[in-house]
TFIIB-type domain-containing protein (uncultured marine group II euryarchaeote 37F11), 679 residues
Amino acid sequence: MQRQALLILSCFLFAIILPSNPLIEQSSAEDVTVCCDSTEADLYLLSSEGSSILSPFEDLLSETPTSASFESALTSPEQIEKWALPSGWSGILPEDTWSLELYYEVSGAGGANLDLSATVTVGGSTFTGYLDNASSFVSGSGTVTIDIPVESVTVSGTSEVSLTLSAGRVVFIVPQGQDAKIEFLWGSEAEDSRVSANLPLIDLSLQEPVVEGDLVYFGLRIESPFGMEALVFSDSITLSVNGILLGGDPTEVSEGDAILVIWTWEGAAGGVETVDVSMEYVLQPGVKLTGLTVFEVETFDSTGGSGGYYPLNEPLRSSGRGSPLSITIDLELESEDNGLRLSRSSTLQISGEMAFWMRWGMDHMGDEAIPLSPVLKNFQAGSVSDDDRGSRVIESIEVNQFEGYMESYYITYFQLGLGIESEELLGDLSDADTFAITLDLMGEERVTNAPLSLRIDSLTPVQSGVSYNLLRSFIKAQPSPLWSGYDISVSGSSSLMTSFSTVELDVSDVLEVDYLRFPWGEMVTIRGDGLTQSDEFSITTKPTSSPLHAPLSLTIIVGIILSGGLWLAFTMVRQKNRYPLLIETILIPIVFVMLFFAYPPLFVLFSSTGVAFAWLATALVSPKLIDNGIRNPTKAPNIVTSFPTINCPQCGVPNPVTSDERPIRLECTGCGRIIKIVA
């Protein structure tokens, strides 16, 4: 009883002391806004989809500028352009001077006198600045600067924040006929016109830590009028605990218009401890936003864990960096029932944020309690129960449901979910006799940032001699890339009596293609490393079962042509010098090299036929075997000394006379000449 009374008294005293303790108040487990009342930044003048906007992100600059021009003198005021923020951001706009830097280019004149003004509108307040008289004359190309004094004013979420550029007068100096013109340029990397401003742009809050065993999850909440662009186009976002930078890939979650970035801290000492948490957000080069606070956390011994932060809302597929992707494709071309069929096995190994999003989505199939993106919301629950859903582990029933539903949903899932055009990568599966989609969690069943793979197997009939798209660039271009890059490897083979006929790569040089032919089949290898969504390529082939293209029959035909030509040529030089023909046999491996490197069949056939005719021509013009009285030792007869001999008047070789009969005709054993003896 005494212990219980002492415990109650301690708790009572702690409850009284706790609110007055300044340290505990600073480290209270609540969200803390750490930045920023207002931000000094450059707002670039941009044109996007017919709208003129202000944005702090230089990544949105295009390669070509937008322009407004005057080709004649202007004597009355005229608006050049108006740019606006997507929406205002609540806060206090401090008193300051905004500065507009605008690119121009004068042509067809010695110069121009300008009267320009720039007006900043914030809600119902307007502030105007004018081009200084000393800078009113311009020539050639360059920039003009207009300073705009801005007074302190309150900005709300519905306030208009815009910049309007107007010209009061434009007078050309020494114009050259009718070609005088001045252009004002903006929106490109080279002509990055901008206004340097000081205004509320972004709110950064450190979220209440989430403790799971011995792991602590720290979140940074990003709120701004730029939505996802604030995450995608930021130069960097980092978080440190006790001065140590947290590594690894954070998890990003969209919460309405805000973005939540969560890091995992594994350095807790255990028990209750106070930690310093600081963040750094680089809005643009030279504009670094920082903030810090103190949290008190209590961690416990853990025997497992979910493997990382598990968001209650759908995670983002990309934070702007993109995820790695590796693709392996195996092809087999075979003949069947007087036709052709192409067996195709494509494996996509997916890592990073995309793998986490896919795992989380499979763990929420059929979830109607939370908002989901359309691509995940359309998945049917099937046999997945409430106990399986949201369990942080992907059960076998969820894998089976995913694989089964993908048979009819793969086009939408690939296109809207993965940003991949399925037909360009996998072929038209609607033409396939059979196809199956298999998911491999690669040994990790938890919902965590671990790789997984999708394998798509198909068997498709193809028409002989008809052009077929083997592979085409398949990544959909997006402002925020889903894939940081991808590697692709394709291995194809044909049977004895089938051929790809040709493998043609368009003018793109981003892929390496090897095409080889063996008597037992053809081999095609396609490789590409570090490809991006901007890389374009197309590879086509023309499968056929024609005997002239089939590896085995083509090799036999070439062998028959070469062996027949060589036999006939050697027959023709039986009584002649064979050395020229022997030298030309070096053409045999050259023909087979062309056959091996899959030169077009007609080219190989014409080459082998040409080689055979070359041998025959050489055989016709080859010299006799005997020259300068030297007898070919292979023709040298066995001279019997007991017989009289007679020298050949042509080559001088002695020939035995083995008969007394006269007249007699003898064939010279050296040159074959007929010698007639009459006495």
User: Anything to note?
Assistant: Confidence is low (pLDDT under 50) at residues 1-28, 627-636. DSSP finds eleven helices and 38 strands in the chain. Residues 625-679 form one domain.
